[in-house]
Design goal:
Rossmann fold, 4-stranded parallel beta sheet, alpha/beta, 363 residues, 16% strand, DNA-binding, homodimer, 6-stranded parallel beta sheet, 3 domains, 434 Repressor (Amino-terminal Domain)
Chain lengths: 363, 363
DNA sequence: CTGAAAGCGCTTACAG
DNA sequence: CTGAAAGCGCTTACAG
């Protein structure tokens, strides 16, 4: 437990026999102070276990030294659900169904936070994280705005209008989305990724038409990915169909069944993993061997894609890098508030797994 | 981009024709202000888009309004690895091996952060998160200390001595570990969980001795879990062995092979999931059917436990609740700095999966 | 219920 | 290189 009242610059100054200005200098720009006095001050800091007060520093320095990260909301009720000090009251849960998972069906969030966290502290800042709970998005934004020097917002956690408004009072970067001309952004090369993946598929796939499982029409990601698909098709023409799968397992499943009626496809390319997994299940039931008779691929790299039968080749967004670049974009913006908004595009990775590899290793 | 200099209480006061004290009151304790003036002030706040400066508030109010969460470090290099604005430079990665994952092999971190985040904002605080990168643990702690009103530290991210020292200058709660008599803590009922699980196993298991895969001797978790195992054994005697598996896949694998030489076990109870999964693999190769001939269980609830063949029955720590309770403990401590250190124990859940269920549903 | 004033603990020109 | 002093934008007794 904290004992005594914390020491201040005044205490340190007195202890070292200097003025508070000198104490401050030793801490902020040591090169401006003689070695001998610097050492005396540092010793006093040690002796008193002095820790600078961040609020005072922030107020005087006109910067908080903190960056904010706004991530999608969640459903966690903070009314605690686990009994406390209740040894023996263990609950047995049937976990055969996909019971948990929450809003994050993959490790993206974790990686993003890690990337942002590392970059933030490297730069000498702190990272404040907030999840826009649907109720109080507006309040959280207001609150954050007053606490940070810059704010990274994950796409779709906030309505565009709120983002624009927030960007008016604090440096802001949009992550995994864009608002061209309005704010800085860092997003991923959806189009290039899908194009590269499709080219690869067209090269290795067995005979048969290619089925593209299109995503939701209102999603920018879906639009970009489909453009990538068509880019590749233009370069490697061949028979193909598109079916609306709406990013869902069900959608992919039905689209595959429909396709199977007119003969088995040689490849199924999903706009995301969920729809590809739905198609995979349909093919399996229909007795179509993957990848020998049909190659299947997804996009996103959700956990399930690693554990399906066979594991799904997919495209992964570099989430840690998104976090890192978001922070860097914020720092640039803070350094040069007047610069033109910039949109950064990060390259993606293709994860090759057995659903596309005819000579895949077996483990 | 942020345009003009932000408005202050003075601007709002002038705009509303009141003093700054009244503005402050409207924001902090509205009930102390007449409805009519309150509305006038609120209108001014709206008009000017006033956002309180957190640093000034923190300095004047002697609280930062921020809680800190220190999580385990990571290896993410912030020297960015993904090419930027490089459409087409997609990398193809062989993902047949367990190539990624990092320090968090499960979703614990994510859930913990979510729980802590929700509870923190619910209480009107912000959440500052930091990962102790090995280099600068000491600095990060110092830095955090000055920025927050309370600090939650995940067990094993910091040497005990550093924790004790930090606890001296800021309210601190240890999460998933204990330092009895020194700091508040929130941890999990390892002993009760293992005891409940073991009792269940002893009840449903087929004939044959029970093999317990013990964890690392220097781990408090291992000690507690083994005590739980023995508690259950005392109540349901029967043949059993213990083997050191050191929390590792390899350790569990070898222990199972060794056991198989003297005959197949009727149950294998791992002190953690990794070792249980190692044993599971050994049993599978040896042709022992799980769960028909041998029941297998783990502890932790890592991702892999859901996707093994068969899926592994295990004990899950309620990470979100750990986060929530950690925050609550911090808030109590802040409210009553003089109280005795408290150690909270949360109950765990047993996740029943096919590795222990003889009549398990098939999907 | 409202206002004047002190003070929170720093940083940073400005002199010397 | 060092110090005196102003000021950062709030909150909070204290009067009235």
């Amino acid at each position: 437990m904290p004992r005594r009242k914390s020491p201040t610059v005044y205490d340190v100054a007195e202890h070292a026999g200097v003025s508070i200005a000198t104490v401050s200098r030793v801490l902020r720009s040591p090169e401006k102070v003689t070695v001998s006095t610097r050492e005396r001050v540092l010793a006093a800091v040690q002796d008193l276990r002095y820790v600078p007060n961040a609020s005072a520093r922030g107020l005087a320095g006109r910067r908080t030294g903190v960056l904010g990260l706004l991530i999608p909301g969640h459903d966690i009720s903070t009314a605690s659900r686990r009994p406390v000090d209740a040894s023996g009251t263990i609950e047995f849960l049937d976990d055969h169904h996909d019971s948990h998972g929450g809003p994050f069906r993959n490790r993206y969030f974790e990686q993003l936070v890690h990337g942002a966290e590392a970059a933030t502290w490297d730069a000498g800042y702190g990272l404040l994280i907030a999840a826009g709970s649907s109720v109080s998005r507006d309040m959280v934004v207001r609150d954050l705005t007053g606490r940070v020097d810059g704010l990274a917002v994950i796409a779709r956690t906030l309505p565009d209008e709120l983002i624009t408004r927030a960007a008016d009072s604090v440096p802001l970067v949009l992550v995994a989305g864009r608002l061209p001309g309005t704010t800085d952004s860092v997003s991923v090369d959806n189009r290039g990724g899908m194009s590269a993946l499709t080219e690869y598929v067209l090269r290795v796939k067995p005979p048969g038409p290619t089925l593209y499982l299109a995503g939701s029409v209102d999603s920018p990601d879906a639009v970009e990915r489909e453009l990538g698909f068509r880019d590749a098709l233009a370069a490697h023409p061949g028979p193909w169909h598109t079916a609306a799968a709406d990013f869902s397992w069900q959608g992919g499943h039905e689209a595959a069944l429909e396709q199977l009626r007119s003969g088995p496809p040689g490849a199924v390319i999903g706009a995301n993993d969920q729809s590809a997994l739905g198609a995979l299940a349909a093919l399996r039931v229909a007795g179509v061997r993957v990848p020998e008779e049909c190659v299947v691929t997804g996009f996103d790299g959700i956990d399930e894609s690693r554990y399906s039968h066979p594991p799904l080749t997919t495209v992964r967004q570099p989430m840690a890098d998104l976090g890192i670049h978001a922070v860097e974009a914020l720092l640039s913006r803070i350094a040069d508030p007047g610069a033109e908004p910039r949109d950064l595009r990060l390259a993606v990775d293709v994860l090759l797994r057995q659903s596309s590899e005819l000579s895949a290793p077996t483990d």
